[in-house]
Amino acid sequence: MRCVLTISTVNVNGMRAAAKKGFVDWLAASGSDVIACQEVRAESSQLPESVVAPLGWHAQHAACSVKGRNGVSVYTRAEPQEVRVGFGEPEFEDSGRYLEVHLPGLVVASLYLPSGDVGTVRQEEKERFMAAFLPYLVELRAKAGAAGSEVVVLGDWNIAHREVDLKNWKTNRKNSGFLPEERAWLGRVYDEAGYVDVQRELDPEGPGPYTWWSYRGKAFDNDAGWRIDLQVATPGLARRAISARVERAATYAERWSDHAPLTVTYDWESPG
Predict the structure, then answer these.
(1) Which of 218, 219, 243, 270 is most buried, by the most CB atoms less than 10 A from its CB?
(2) Which residues are marked as site: Important for catalytic activity (predicted)?
């Protein structure tokens, strides 16, 4: 049966604050079928019912073992067939960085890739995560393909792939998020693992559209952002993408996160 499938992803930058500033209203008004959230930074017991188990949604949450850090969620209209936390790498199993939900014909993952900081242990953590995650992506695509399913990895990848993916690329060439080795790694996700950056496939030229703007200075007002929130899909699903939009707040005051939701609509053929 053919239908329209709408999928959103957003880094909420702390769900407790986002829930009070507008996330709950956005979720209630959303026409999406799947929503992935990152940087939740809270356990379910710390969140309101409207976030933990909102009406009309099946909600899955993966908190970090370190309180107040990371955390990812996936909301689906349909009940999942299977839920997986982590991707098999012991260091990151309880880090609140990866949550996978299996639906009929579709595997959906919420990813919060480490942000890194050049010359620190945070950058080393990011590099270890990337080294372990790429082989898993290859394995995931193979297993899903054998089962007749597509895959979409939603989330904050914390890497701008090309110069058109951030406003001030010249001054960020030595900063985490735009390092040559990080960009090359993301290129391997596309070229070697065979995934597709769905939004960029629909809009090859750019610049942007950006999904994150620093709270510092006038970054939001000047649209000096980064395109780091992505929907990375297997080719079969990517080919069905109809449209993509960044739900950028109309004004600085109306923001409930320093990120904006990325929403993609697909022409979906539902199994059965």
Answers:
(1) 219
(2) 229
